[in-house]
Design brief:
The chain is an alpha/beta fold. The protein contains 9 helices and 29 strands. Strands 1, 2, 14, 17, 18, 19, 21 and 22 form an 8-stranded mixed β-sheet that branches. Strands 9-6-8-7-10 form a 5-stranded mixed β-sheet, with no helix packed on it. A 5-stranded mixed barrel has the order 23-26-25-27-29. The longest helix is centred in the last third of the chain and has 19 residues. The chain is elongated. The structure holds adenosine monophosphate and magnesium ion. The site of adenosine monophosphate has 19 residues, from α5.
């Protein structure tokens, strides 16, 4: 059955008629609704080295041949294959050496019948030569240790024409389509652009994500801790997550549990592409984020059928971004440090990747054998912090210890999140489950 979301609206009619009750939705439903608010951002031209992790927004055709000239794949002698037909160790073919050519220069002399030119790896093959013979297949070493006369050389082995020559355009021909729009820039793509002589590329820009922690109990890391307070960790976790997925984090600070404080802080994030708050979305007198959002935006409050991290707010916040009025998507994560991180991974990460032009948004997942029983009594999707290790031929996932949603050390120990589906009421030790990899480091 299709249900409608309860959006709180600035529209008084809608506001009065729409109850602000939270609704229960699945992780997949929440993700789908969230992603529908995000679009791929516009492209920007940047130096290639600054493009790492960004998505190419143009097709790249080569303007040159790579390599630009026939060149030697070995250190040896450039010669004509016809001149060394039948050469053996006992019956070498002797050629007059006309000179030497190193990588980066071009030989003025050509190779004529009965002659050779000493050549280094990467050097252009001299005119007239059709083959390169390695030093090891000549008598160069024995010449050096006897009279040192290198004005001629004995070739000890016959090789076929063309051997050890890298042909002009063998890798890329001028005009070839080398990279297509949509490709993620990794070190190899960046190197490839450099090999074509491209200094810049057009890539989808990185989203700016404004981040706000909320709570009267929160203290900045540079302040002493007074009674009743705790240090704010969410701003740091979330900002680091944003950077990790190549967004540009902007921490707005710590919002106090008053409408004025939160409103004023959020105002400073209105020029961002996305706002992320943490805390203030669960039940309680001091939970202000939702009140602000009721005034300033179109926001839904959801109870997502997941554990940890049930309460979530999502919608758009309206205000002045720079000189113009705009609406910015806002994701309100739960305050508990583990919940905020896991909900970030499930909802904020795909939103950031979508803005960056990625089409594959799912977290890399493997199958692993879990070492503990995990009951799932109320049909939620459970994310269990695990350490994944490779057994003989299978992956194993062991729990990191206490799974309380405030226990950040259990997240620090984990390299994966085992995903227990809503439909599975009881996972037994030895069962195989999906594990989202937080990273690929193995313990
Ligand atoms: P809330 O969602 O605001 O009710 O917060 C839930 C729990 O998370 C409370 O114990 C808060 O103290 C804690 N919490 C909220 N925000 C942060 C933060 N930025 N850093 C660390 N803990 C937090
Ligand atoms: Mg709070």
């Amino acid at each position: 059955m299709q249900r409608t979301i309860n959006l709180v609206s600035t529209n008084p009619i809608l506001y009065n008629t729409t109850p602000r009750a939270k609704r229960m939705i699945s992780v997949d439903e929440a993700l789908e609704k969230i992603l529908s608010h995000f679009r791929t951002l516009e492209p920007e031209q940047k130096p290639i080295l600054d493009c790492l992790g960004q998505v190419l927004a143009e097709d790249i055709h080569s303007a040159i041949d790579v390599p630009p000239l026939d060149n030697s794949a070995m250190d040896g002698y450039a010669l004509r294959a016809a001149d060394i037909q039948g050469a053996t160790e006992s019956a070498p073919r002797y050629l007059r050496v006309m000179g030497e050519v190193a990588a980066g220069s071009v030989s003025e002399t050509g190779v004529t019948p009965g002659t050779a030119i000493r050549i280094m790896t990467g050097a252009p093959v001299p005119r007239g030569a059709d083959t390169v013979v390695r030093f090891e297949d000549t008598d160069e070493v024995s010449r050096r240790s006897s009279d040192g006369d290198l004005s001629q050389i004995g070739v000890l082995r016959e090789v076929e024409e063309g051997r050890n020559i890298r042909r002009r355009g063998e890798d890329i021909a001028s005009g070839d389509l080398v990279l297509t729009h949509g490709r993620t820039m990794r070190p190899q793509e960046i190197g490839l652009l450099a090999s074509l002589g491209r200094a810049t590329a057009l890539v989808i820009r990185r989203p700016v994500v404004a981040i706000l922690a909320t709570g009267d109990e929160l203290t900045g890391v540079d302040q002493p801790l007074s009674p009743g307070k705790i240090y704010d960790s969410n701003n740091y976790t979330i900002a680091a997550e944003v950077s990790r997925y190549r967004g540009i984090p902007r921490i707005l600070g710590i919002g106090r549990d008053t409408v004025e404080s939160l409103s004023e802080k959020l105002d400073r994030g209105m020029d961002a592409d996305m706002l992320i708050t943490s805390g203030g979305v669960s039940k309680g007198d001091y939970d202000m984020v939702k009140d602000i959002l009721a005034e300033r935006g179109e926001i839904g409050f959801w109870t997502v059928r997941m554990k940890p991290g049930k309460p979530l707010a999502f919608g758009t916040m309206t205000g002045k971004g720079g000189s113009r009025e705009k609406a910015v998507p806002l994701l309100g994560l739960p305050g508990n440090p583990v919940s905020s991180m896991i909900t970030f991974e499930q909802f904020a990460r795909p939103a950031i990747l979508k803005m960056m032009g990625y089409t594959s948004l799912a977290k890399p997942t493997i199958r692993a054998i879990i070492d503990s029983d995990i009951p799932n009594r109320d049909g939620r999707r459970i994310f269990v912090r695990v350490i994944v290790s490779k057994g003989n031929d299978k992956y194993h996932a062991s729990l990191t210890g206490p799974q309380g949603s405030g226990i950040l050390t259990s997240m620090a120990r984990a390299n994966g999140l085992a995903v227990i589906p809503e439909s599975n009421s009881q996972v037994r030790a030895g069962d195989t489950v999906d594990v989202q990899m937080l990273d690929w480091r193995q313990e």
